[in-house]
Fold these 3 entries.
Entry 1:
Amino acid sequence: MRCPFCDHADTQVVETRESDEGDSIRRRRRCLHCDKRFTTYERIELALPAVVKKNGVRVEFDRRKLRASMVLALRKRPVSAEAVDAAIHRIEEKLMSLGLREVGSERIGEQVIRELKKLDKIAYVRFASVYRNFEDVDEFADVIQEVQARKRKA
């Protein structure tokens, strides 16, 4: 493993821990050249379906892109990184359980909306407004009324 600070090839594993769920291993490493420490994660790599965008272009599923869009919607909201990771993990599990080689980006977007609705109502409305491409205030009002109606039922 190369050091992210000095790009030296020799690093040493200082500590290894398995995640609580048992699906990844966290390793603390130390560079033998610059002596800086960094963390790596080891996960099982499963084949996620390719994503078919609205324009028909096929791209590889990108966990980082999914995370970035969720973090943007959750900006300045009281949601932990662990909760975001768990939501992303649920989305990935759902995609793998479909058993498809390709999945439409709309389907992934709907999964994100469901997860954000569970995590934070404000983030849900933010994401939905961009994802569903609201064109007027009435569409915003409809989503807000939906959230308020669910809140009253709970």
Entry 2:
Amino acid sequence: MGWKKEYSNKLISAEDAASRIHGGQTVVFTPGREAHAIGLALAARARDISNIKVYIPSPSYDFGWYDPGWEDIFNITVSMVTATCQDAVDAHRVDIDTGTLFPFQELPNMKTDVLLTEVSPPDEHGFCSFGASLWNKKTLVEAAPLVIAEVNSHLIRTHGDNFVHVSQIDYFVEHTSSGRAPGTGSLAGRALKEPEPYVKDITGFVNSLLRDGDTIQIGVGRTTEPMVKLGLLDGKCDIGYHSEATPPGIITLVKEGVINGSRKTINRGKVIVTTIGGSTPEEMQWVVDNPLFHLVDVAYLEDIRVIAAHDNMVSINNTLMVDLYGQVCSEGIGQQILGIAGGQIMFVYGAWLSKGGRSIIVVPSTAKDGQVSRIVPYLPPGTPVTLQRNLADYIVTEHGIARLRGKTLRQRSDELVAIAHPDFRNELRQQSCQMLYP
């Protein structure tokens, strides 16, 4: 039969979809925004079921199960720590999937019984789009034994590998959800704030490290995401882009020709991402069916070999804390988990291996209204090290640039003390002497 008849036969309600999930099963939501109506219907069955394992890579909707008392019904695992689940993470009501250094080799480390995803209505050929967020959705669909897709007419269509055929989905639930409007939150789902004045200074220093023809990656973070609109690429030309997402301003710079990928070693002339976000509705509309933008599976995007194949690859990532040895901590401080490494490790490795490549880590010099230095002599106990000191290249604060590549421990310490906040430099210098000198 034709795809239209097949699609019609597979249409069910959100409640019917939720009824097909049973106790003891593992339910996996695909990355990006969750299937909203199905998630609500599943949560509404809390009195009828128990011991459901739920994997949600990047929580955006609050279905209630992050609150106390739901643990025996829904055993939740998340990857990205967002505002939606931060309290539950802090209280250890959910587990954390830390990801892997080689995402192209691994699906979620759990058996999947039911996969829940979100797609656009099918086109004239029966293909649905995954919208503005691909990640590894297509791979997950191909591997799952039961796939239920929520059909949202607001999802955009893009070029790349961002499609799935009606025949690959077991059931469809039609539900149009606007979700979080573009531009109303960070790429990690946290409320947008006006960037602090220091971000402009950090942006200027990073700009000085970029060259015409570089291919760049920009990671998630409150310091990195505003940088494009604050002049990160001012005065630059022929920039290439290979990154997870599109922070505010990236699409406009593609439109203006600043980012054109004309000197990229691979995928020349194309913007390669796995998700489109942080953009205005006008920018999002410009991406629709635009051959300049290719959404690819995260396994390809974050393959270190692919990243390194770009000459002059520059990774720009945010962190929470750096110690005087150059250890970079981007996932948490002490026992508190604030995020995961995501693609930071892969892009830093790739930039190191790239001909002419550079890795730039940005970090404000202080936290808590200037009371705490983010450059520290020792890491608090329990702090996860995201990047070993051997991988530290450029560290940038609002007070300057530290170049750590090829430096001794004493030289690294001196470089980092020099870009710490002036209020903490004397103390850091004294501690450095105690640590590194007789």
Entry 3:
Amino acid sequence: MKKQPKYSPEVIERAVRMVSEAASEYESQWAAITSIAAKISCTPETLRR
């Protein structure tokens, strides 16, 4: 069986856009990812991938 993605394409697109837009406000991309991941209730590693 093929695993269904947990997040819709719209949520993924929005999260990536949020990280891109907020990157300049953080000292590293990882810091931005960690912050945004907490806001959308996923792990930072999930968002990074």
